[in-house]
Design a protein that fits this description.
homotetramer; mainly alpha; Arc Repressor Mutant, subunit A; Tetracycline Repressor, domain 2; elongated; DNA-binding
DNA sequence: AATGAATGAGACTTCATTCAT
DNA sequence: AATGAATGAAGTCTCATTCAT
C-alpha cells in the first residue's frame, strides 16, 4: 500500500516483493530462492536469516494477499447499498482482483489446502465464524433474507455456494488468460445475474 | 479399484497407471520420470520407448481423463428427463467425478491454458461448437429456454457461466479435501438449487 | 556416383546414405544410431545386422569419402598439363571438394588419427608409397623438379609440406563457413601462388 | 609442469586445470561436468558456482589459451630481426606451442566457428584490424614488402594465406601425434622454406 | 546480518548396445 | 533379416538448504 522506495525498504520486505514479482512473472514454478536472492542483490543464504524456509516465505506472501482480499470485501460492505447490489459489486471486485494479481490468486487459491481446517479452506462448517470474508458474506445474505430480498436458507451454506461460483469464474478467467473484454464482461454479468436470481424468493 | 492385474498389463498401460498413482499421491509436482520408472521396475530410458517425452505422457493421461468426463456427460444427456433434472444430474456427476479422481481433475483443469484456444479452455466465444461438453450443455439450456423452463438468454454464454459455477464447486471440494459427507451433499444441493432457480424465467 | 532410387538400394547402402545425410546436416555430434534408423524406417537393432558397431559404420563412410578424394586427384593427374598447372588445379579441386562436403571432410580429416600409421595419416615418412594421393603428388613434384620447374628437394617431404598447406586452407574454409565469394577465391589464388613460387628454383 | 600445488589453488583454478587435463587426455568429447567434479572431489553443482555453465568454462579456457598464443607471437615480434627471420621464428613457435598443448590447440582451432565474425575466425576480410596476431603478421609482411624482401601484395590477404599454411602444419602434427623428431623438424623447415621463398619477389 | 562455498538429490533426456522373438 | 523392448551409463543443469567465516 505504502510505496516505499525499494532501497529503503527492510530486507524482509524486499525479499517478499522480489518473490511476488517473480511469482507474477513466471508463476509458482519459477519461484526459487536463487532468483529471489539475485534479484535483490543478496546471497541465497541471507534469505534464511529472515525466513525459516521457502514455505514460510510463501506463507507470508499468501497471508498478505489474503489480507488484501479481506480488506477489499470489507470496504465494499461498508459502502452501503442493497444486499443484491453489494453482492454484485463483490463479485466484480473479487474477479477483478484475481485478474489483476493472477499469480497471487493462484498461489493463494489454486493450491492444496494441507490441513483441511487451516489456510483458505472455505467449505468447512462454521467457516463464517472463523473467516472474515465468509462472515461478511453470510451476514449480507442473512440481511437480504430478512429484508425478503432473498429466499430463506442457511446463510453460511449459501455463502459457501455463492463463493464457489464466484471462485470458479475467477479461477477460469485467470487460468485461461486473455479473453475479449466484451465477452469477459458479459460473462461476469451473466454469472452475477444467475446468482442474484438464484437467491431470490 | 476394479481392473487389477498390474503385472499382465502392457508396459504403456503400466507406465500410465504408475503416473496416475503418483499424481494421485503427490500431485503434479511430484510426477517425475524417475519415480515412474522405479515404481514399475523399469529403467528411465525404457519409458521413452513408449512416450516421446514427459509432455506426451501427461498429454495422454489428460486426454483419457477428458474423454472419460465427456462420456459421463453424454451418458447423462442420453438418459432423458427434463432439462432441469438433467442439469442437476450433471452437476452431481461432474462433482462426483472430480472427487473420485482428484489428481486427474487437478491435472486436467487446474493448470494454465497456454494458447487460449487449445486444451480445456472453456470461456472463449464459440466453445460450444468446439467442445462436446459445452455443446451438450448449451443445447440442454437452449431446449430449456424453448420449453419456457429457463429464461431466454444466449445459451453458450449461459453454459459458460453455469460451468464456471460447477467447476468452482468441484475445484474447492477437491482442493480442500475431506469434508463431512452431510455437509458436502447439502452444499452441492444448495448450488444446484441456486443455479436452477437462477436460470428460471 | 550411381543415383539409385533410395528404395531399391541395399540396406547397408541406405544406412550409409542416411548417416551421411545426418552428418552433412548436423555434424558428427548429431550422428546417432537412433536417427539413422528412424530416417530409413528401420529399427535401431537392424543396423547392427549390417555394421558391427558405430565405429565400423563411420569407418566405412570415411573410407568411401577418402576413395572419392583419391579418384578426384587421380583424374586431375591424368588430364595432363604442366606440373605447376596440375598442382594449381589440385589445390582448387581439393578445397572445392572440402567445401562441398564439409561434414565428410571434417569426419575424414579433422579427427584424431588413432594409430599414427593407420588411416589418413600423411606426415609419416614413406607415406608416398602407402598412400595413393601422396604418391601422385610426390611424383608430380619430382617431375617438376626434373623438368627444372621446381627446385630440387625430397619429393615426399615436399609433398607433405604442400599438403599441410592445402589442408590448412581447406580446413579453415570449412570451419569458418560462409565467406564472400570474391575473398574466398582471392585467398585460394594467393595460396596457390605462394606454393608454386615457393617451389620454384 | 611448473605451478603444482593443486591443493592450495583456488577452486576455479582447480576446475579449469581438471578440465584441461581431461581435454588433454580424451579430447573435447570427453569433457563433462561430471568428470571434472569427480576429479577434484567436488559435487557437480559446485562447479556452477564458479562457472555459469559449460560454455562459460570452456570459453574461459579457450580465451586463456588464445591469450597465451597472442603473447607468444608478440614476444617474437619484439625481439627484432629481419621480417623473414621473424616469420620463420613465428612458424616454429606456433607449431611448437600447438604440440605442447595439443588439446588446447584443438579446442581452440579445430572447432566450428559459429558466427563467422566471432571467435577465432581468421579468414574474413578486415581481420588484421580485429585480431592482434593477424595485425602483427600483416604488419610484418608489409614491412618486408617495403624493404623489398617480399613481393608486393595485399598484406592482409597474404597473412591469411600464410596463416592457413602454418595452421595446416600444426593441425596435422597435432592430429597425427608421434612422429620421428628428425622428420618433424625437416618438415617444419621445408614448410618455412616454401613460405619464405613463396613470398620473395 | 550477510556471504561464499558446497552439497545431495533430483529433474529430463539421449546414447550405443543387447537380447529374445 | 528385422523388430520391440529394455538397459546402464552418461549428459547438463536447478533446487532448497547448510555451514564456516
Amino acid at each position: 500500500m505504502s510505496t516505499d522506495a525499494q532501497d529503503t525498504a527492510s530486507t524482509p520486505t524486499r525479499i517478499r516483493r522480489a518473490a511476488e514479482e517473480i511469482l507474477a512473472e513466471g508463476g509458482y514454478e519459477a519461484l526459487s530462492m536463487r532468483k529471489i536472492a539475485s534479484r535483490i542483490g543478496l546471497s541465497q543464504a541471507a534469505i534464511y536469516r529472515h525466513y525459516k524456509d521457502k514455505d514460510e516465505l510463501v506463507g507470508t506472501i499468501v497471508a498478505a494477499g489474503y489480507a488484501e482480499l479481506v480488506a477489499l470485501v470489507e470496504r465494499l460492505n461498508e459502502k452501503g447499498g442493497s444486499p443484491a447490489e453489494i453482492l454484485a459489486h463483490t463479485v466484480r471486485a473479487y474477479v477483478g482482483w484475481a485478474e489483476e494479481r493472477p499469480e497471487l490468486f493462484k498461489a493463494l487459491l489454486l493450491r492444496e489446502v494441507r490441513p483441511a481446517s487451516a489456510g483458505v479452506a472455505g467449505l468447512a462448517p462454521g467457516v463464517a465464524r472463523r473467516r472474515r470474508t465468509f462472515g461478511l458474506l453470510a451476514d449480507l445474505l442473512a440481511r437480504g433474507m430478512e429484508e425478503g430480498l432473498f429466499a430463506r436458507a442457511d446463510p453460511e451454506l449459501t455463502a459457501q455456494a455463492v463463493w464457489t461460483s464466484i471462485f470458479g469464474l475467477a479461477a477460469r478467467l485467470v487460468l485461461e488468460g486473455e479473453l475479449p473484454r466484451e465477452h469477459r464482461e458479459a460473462l461476469i454479468e451473466r454469472q452475477v445475474n444467475i446468482i442474484v436470481r438464484g437467491l431470490s424468493p
